[in-house]
Design a protein that fits this description.
- This protein has 575 residues and is α+β, with helices and mostly antiparallel strands.
- It has 3 domains: 243 residues, BirA Bifunctional Protein, domain 2 (2-Layer Sandwich); 149 residues, YbaK/aminoacyl-tRNA synthetase-associated domain (YbaK protein); 94 residues, Anticodon-binding domain (Rossmann fold).
- Helices cover 26% and strands 29% of the residues.
- The protein is built from 15 helices and 29 strands.
- The strands form 7 sheets. Strands 3, 7, 8, 9, 10, 11, 12, 21 and 24 form a 9-stranded mixed beta sheet that branches.
- The chain is globular and about 90 Å long.
- The protein starts with 20 loop residues before the first helix and ends with a helix.
């Protein structure tokens, strides 16, 4: 490939809305262009990266016997209504009508369509097991698209679905795909972690996430360095026996204090000049129980975050729950949010305390009066110990690992893959059955497996960049080698050597690009450092006279002088 025949259009400045390295660098390197909120064009350069990722994914899926097909991006709503996801997926599911008024969706995933395919085409046990996959554009109507490709509305995804005769066989298939995923991410040159995860609205009984480790990741992951425990922190339980209570020698008197417009735990701690862990956080939530609104107050330490997934699993209400509005707080407790606390006059409000708060002493609570807080509060003496206690918070670094083998270490990650063991959830809902060897009709045991193909592109940049630009892992770089000749059009010796090397590199199957754009040297070199090609070969009049070229390895930014005749063997050993 010659750069003059290619399309290379770099940009000096990052767009104002770009917050993270991958968003900035992919646009500056000319690999993507924004066309709308969360919608991007992949340039020819970006497509080279994308196609290399796809190639690795496809090769490893086919390596375990998976069969590729392609489903429509626009899907009839009837299939989604059968699984109730037409209603349950909320506003992320883009619904549309055709000219005849029929309902359709733009697919965010494809469980329903794949189950329908299996229902029609895999009717006998003799055709099982099967793993079917596709690499297809998806659409999720994100409320707030951001971070470029990491939270786009339209994205490229590999989704796969397995169909087995029984649970044992389905678990074996799950492990086979799981192993293929590990090979895929290793081959792509990513530093990744596999963690236990929640199944979300996909459902199922077992789930794992694959995360590229990065400080810009939106997910927090918990690891135990003394064992192999790893999980998304939303799934990590805090056992009551592992909660350490800090007992003081003396209880101070409870006192009502004026706290004008001091509402948050942070503001309270600052106002009283105390540590935030001595402030009690009170959260009022509401849900339906026997057809009427039921209010529940949740108590946490001031420096802890409420884990909404753990609240879901308590099944406090018959339906879902939400945070009480300002008006609902006022009607229920007679006070503005920010001043509520567990000393309640409304006995209909149930109080649930996080395990940790029961070990607090001399703490501060909202007084259930506007602009007032109680200091020096203690359990039993000032307020009753709540009858119900539960694990309500997110795990933090230093918490005991659930396997009791050490302490938790917290890292951030970017999710690039997810596997789900679905069981018969979708097959039963869609009446998808096969005939076993005795003629009995049974539902398929299923698994679901996703890889964010376009997301990998951004995640790789988050993990591989420096002040000059992108540093692509060699397996997915748009080109492996760039030839950068100085005075290409002015010096016949430079041109002859460059053309000769270019042809030899191509003959030896190197993925090489020759920069023949006639740009200034500084611009040429800066462009390729930004684009992130692993190896740059500089050819100059001075070097040609010495029968040498300068080889720069992009990751280390190290330079070596190499004999022209020895360049091919050198590159074979270093790429």
């Amino acid at each position: 490939m010659k750069a003059k025949d290619f399309h290379l259009e770099t940009v000096k400045e990052s767009p104002a809305e770009a917050e993270i390295p991958s968003h900035k660098l992919l646009i500056r390197a000319g690999m993507i262009r924004k066309m709308g909120s969360g919608i991007y064009v992949f340039s020819p350069l970006g497509m080279r990266v994308l196609q290399k990722i796809i190639s690795v994914v496809r090769k490893n899926m086919e390596g375990i016997g998976a069969l590729e097909l392609l489903t429509p991006m626009v899907q009839p709503a009837d299939y989604w209504k059968k699984t109730n996801r037409w209603e349950s997926m909320g506003q992320e599911l883009l619904r549309l009508k055709d000219r005849h008024g029929r309902d359709f969706v733009l697919q965010p995933t494809s469980e329903e369509i794949f189950v329908e395919i299996a229902k029609v085409e895999l009717k006998s046990w003799r055709k099982l097991p099967k793993v079917l996959f596709q690499i297809q554009t998806k659409f999720r109507d994100e409320r707030r698209p951001r971070f470029g490709l990491l939270r786009a509305r339209e994205f490229l995804m590999k989704d796969a679905y397995s169909f087995d005769i029984d649970e044992k066989s389905a678990h074996e298939t799950y492990e086979k795909v799981f192993s293929a995923y590990q090979t895929i991410f290793t081959t792509l040159g990513l530093k990744f972690a596999t963690v236990l995860a929640d199944s979300g609205n996909i459902g199922g009984t077992k789930s794992h996430e694959f995360h590229v480790i990065s400080e810009t990741g939106e997910d927090e992951l918990g690891f135990c360095v003394e064992s192999d425990f790893a999980a998304n922190i939303e799934l990590i339980p805090i056992k009551e026996k592992n909660v350490v209570s800090k007992r003081l020698e003396k209880m101070t008197p409870q006192s009502l204090k004026d706290t004008p417009d001091v509402r948050t735990c942070e503001e309270v701690a600052k106002f009283f000049e105390i540590n935030i862990e001595n402030v009690l956080k009170s959260i009022l939530i509401v849900g339906q129980s026997k057809g009427v609104d039921k209010y529940v107050m949740l108590l946490l330490r001031g420096d802890r975050r409420l884990n909404e997934l753990k609240v879901d699993k308590l099944k406090i209400f018959q339906t879902g729950w939400r945070f009480a509005s300002v008006e609902e707080v006022r009607n229920c407790l007679g006070v503005e949010p920010g001043f509520i606390g567990p000393q309640l006059s409304n006995e209909e409000v149930q109080v649930i305390a996080d395990f940790e708060v029961l070990g607090m002493q001399n703490f501060i609570i909202g007084a259930n009066k506007d602009n007032k807080h109680f200091t020096g509060t203690n359990w039993d003496r000032d307020i009753e110990i709540p009858s119900k206690k539960a694990d309500l918070r997110f795990a933090v670094e230093g918490d005991s690992s659930p396997d009791n083998k050490g302490k938790l270490l917290i890292k951030r990650g970017i999710e690039v893959g997810h596997t789900f063991f679905l069981g018969t959830k979708y097959s039963k809902k869609m009446d998808a059955f096969f005939s076993d060897e005795n003629g009995k009709m049974l539902p398929f045991e299923m698994g679901c497996y996703g890889i964010g193909v376009s997301r990998i592109m951004a995640a790789a940049v988050e993990q591989n960049n420096d002040s000059y630009g992108i540093i692509w892992p060699s397996k997915i770089a748009p080109f492996s080698i760039v030839l950068c000749p100085i005075q290409y059009y002015l010096n016949s010796d430079v041109r002859t050597v460059t053309e000769d090397l270019y042809l030899k590199l191509k003959k030896n199957l190197f993925d090489v690009v020759l920069d023949d754009r006639n740009e200034r040297v500084g611009i040429m070199l800066a462009d390729w450092e930004l684009v992130g090609v692993p190896v740059r070969v500089l050819i100059s009049p001075r070097l040609v006279k010495q029968n040498e070229v300068e080889v720069l390895h992009r990751r280390e930014m190290s330079q070596n002088l190499v004999d022209i005749n020895g360049l091919i063997p050198y590159l074979k050993n270093h790429l």
